[in-house]
Amino acid sequence: DKPALLVRLEVNRCIRTISTSRDAVEVVASLRTLAGYLPDGPHARASASEREEFDRAHYTMVLKVLVGGLHADWRQRLTSAEHTELWGAFFLQGPPDQALLVIMDCIGTIGQSSGQDKMVDILELYLQNGRVGALLWSRCQGPGSPDSPQLRETLLGRMVSLPDLMANRLYPHNRPLFLSAQYYSLLAQEFKFALDKTCKALKDGQDCSLRFVAQLLGKTCVQGHKHLFKDLVPHLSASTRSDMVWQRVCWRLMEDIPDRWMESVVTGLVQVVTGPAALARILGNLVVKNKKSQFVLTHKLLLLQYKYETCVLRTLLGYLAQDRERRPLLIQVLRALCQAWSSSSSVRHTPVEQQLYLSRALLLCVSLLSEAELQELRAELMQCMLGGMQCHLDSNVVRIRRIGMVVGECLSSRLNTQEARLKFEVHCCPVFHSIVILLLDTLQISHCSKDKEMGSPEEPVTLTSHLESQGPPADKGSDSELDSDDELTPYDMSDDREMTKSAPPRYIRDCLEGLIFSEDPTRVELSLQAAEGLVRKNPSAAREVSVELTKVLLHLEDKYSTPSFLALRQAAMVALAVVDSIPVAEYLTTEFYSVNYSLRQRMDILEVLALSAQELSKPIAEQGRPSLPPSAAVTLVDPQSVPSNWRQVVEQRIQSKTRRFGKSGAPAPVTATPNRYASVAGFFFFPLLQSYDRPQVTFDLLGSDHLVLGRLVHTLGLLMHLAVNAPVATQMGRSLLDFVPGGSGVLFSVCAVFLSMPGQCLLAELSDHLLETRAWLAGKIPPSAVLLLTKLRSQN
């Protein structure tokens, strides 16, 4: 056997190779070496001690390295068999608790991408292959789990909340196995598996611990998933009928449930179990040993709540009456019920439904008393009967008075007071008549329940599915017909495309990973081609990585001579600036004056800003306009529709009495649409004016790099022109007139100021600038151009 040091050295060497190497052959060899430490598979070669050291100290780190290589090129080159054997096997054959935590953490941290889809596939295989049952059984072995309480709480939280976590991460494309009904049904099956293994181990003399299983059961119930018992309780009831070891396992399971979750477990169990005998086999004397369960069973379910059916009361009270140690609790419950039923305050301040519930519980308790106990409690019951009847008959609610008469008759009959038996003439409506019958029948419930418990349990219904053929059987022709290919026509292969190993990305994060880490030319090209469409298709996902993806695209080089590289890169950056305008614009305008950028990259920034501003300033495509009535028609006012505003009333009256004559129809009304660029124009414009006169080491805008200066002035003029009628247009115009470095681009910028700013703002706020600009323009442009500019301004 290798010592722990050699195992650590070998594992660390393999991890370094997987993390840093770009040679797929080396990575596959390292994966095969690590697969030797797994318990099963064709590469298993490690001894038990080596495997134990690997599981204890290195397994989680190996899984994290594998998760980190989700987007690596070497994983894309693995065949399906190699992927299952050398990647997926690590998650399905190692310690199940560590694997589940890594899988859930990975799904919770990575965004919507193909990597997330792969981890979801692994989680689905994890559940289908019974790994949850293996996890529970691994926690049952030995006297107890050595891990920390924090790790145990984390693991419990992931297992119990798995449907909620997956629904939040995968919405709206959740998978059926992760839905609550399917998952908790599967969890119930894994509970059965773990308890079965525990019983077999105990019979073989092996020590086991049920603490983790009990905590998982309690945490599941406290979160409201009590329907877990619907699949689990029938199995427990059947298994404990004739096996004492199973009974001891169930008793210990219930005793190990923490007190903070005891109420949820006991309440759910009482509602599902069939009969007091089955409840006694599962709970044992828990009600005597555990104070929390005693409070729930003897007080809360009987005196504070009243939503349960009669069968639940029958099961609960029958459970208390069955054992000699629990029988004193039945007498205690009876006294509490008598006190509540005969209390005038309780009758006045509790609803009728709760009075009926107390009456059922009281009559059930009385029916379960033996003759000796009945004689001992005779005086208390008589006092309860007389005092309670008086309180109920004094009520002004008819239903409460009838409940008092019916319970008085039943108690009188049970006490065998022949000389003083009560008899009332109760006239009930049909609905209340069924309630009376129900109360009267409670006297016979104890005998019926005992007979039912002695009988054989119902056989579970098993649903079997038959595989049927999906179509008629194929006709068997002669061998000559099968072998003949004379009738075969050639297949049209004109539209066939060359199959590539890399598939186009379906998520924006896959594009980002492909552009950053991949050295496969095909994958880079596919990522670049799909970037714009994915950004516009899913804006919410694009906003999460907008600045990061813009940075990658701005620095991306055409290393593989990708067709239409510049156009694809520019289109993706424009889409990002349109979808998430403010962060992307802030990043681009800041990087424009940064060092270590080429002139081509700075020109690209200006082009992206200009194109995205143009797209934002365009109105959103309309869905369609309603047809307009003919111009000569007279518009009538509906007398039923009375406008609330008097101006609308006058306008409608004028329209109804106005006749229009003419051949040409009225011009279609223009629907106003918001200018998306107006609210973000300042983020595009002002940062470009901040540092133009500060020469950098590699960039001198006013010196040798005057070509970029001309493009900057044109871009500023375009951004000014697109901000027409925007609130920030005045401030933008003042700043642009201050920025007059000279050149042909200045004329375009000045024209953009005059055409975009409101006329009153030009005269009121820019009068000094206008005089200087007029004098400057007189020497730069001919008079005809000035007249043309004045004409355009008047038309605007």
Helix percentage range:
55-70%
What share of residues are in beta strands?
Answer: under 5%
Structural class: mainly alpha
General form: flat
List unreliable stretches of 5+ residues: 429-433, 443-485, 622-643
Based on CA atoms alone, the radius of gyration comes out at 41 Å
Let me know the average pLDDT: 80
The biggest sheet amounts to: none
Give the N-to-C terminal Cα separation.
89 Å
Number of helical segments with 4 or more residues: 44
Question: What would you say about this model in short?
Answer:
By secondary structure, this protein is mostly helical.
Tell me about this structure.
The chain is an all-alpha fold and 796 residues long. It has 44 helices and no strands. Helix 33 runs parallel beside helix 35 and helix 35 (581-592) packs antiparallel against helix 36. The N and C termini lie far apart (89 Å). The model is unreliable at 429-433, 443-485 and 622-643 (pLDDT under 50). Belongs to the TEL2 family. Residues 324-415 form the TELO2 ARM repeat domain. It is found in: Cytoplasm; Membrane; Nucleus.
Secondary structure layout plus pairing:
Elements: H1 4-20, H2 24-35, H3 48-57, H4 59-68, H5 73-76, H6 80-93, H7 96-109, H8 114-128, H9 131-140, H10 149-160, H11 162-170, H12 180-203, H13 211-222, H14 228-239, H15 244-255, H16 259-272, H17 276-283, H18 286-289, H19 291-304, H20 310-322, H21 327-341, H22 344-349, H23 352-367, H24 371-376, H25 378-393, H26 398-414, H27 430-441, H28 445-454, H29 479-483, H30 508-517, H31 521-537, H32 539-544, H33 546-555, H34 565-579, H35 581-592, H36 599-617, H37 646-656, H38 681-685, H39 706-722, H40 729-738, H41 744-756, H42 759-765, H43 767-778, H44 783-795
Helix pairs in contact: 1-2, 1-3, 1-4, 2-6, 4-7, 6-7, 7-8, 9-12, 10-13, 12-14, 13-16, 16-19, 17-20, 19-21, 20-21, 20-23, 21-23, 21-25, 23-26, 25-26, 26-27, 30-31, 31-34, 33-34, 33-35, 34-35, 34-36, 35-36, 36-39, 39-41, 40-41
Organism: Scleropages formosus (Asian bonytongue)
Keywords: Cytoplasm, Membrane, Nucleus
Domain TELO2 ARM repeat: 324-415
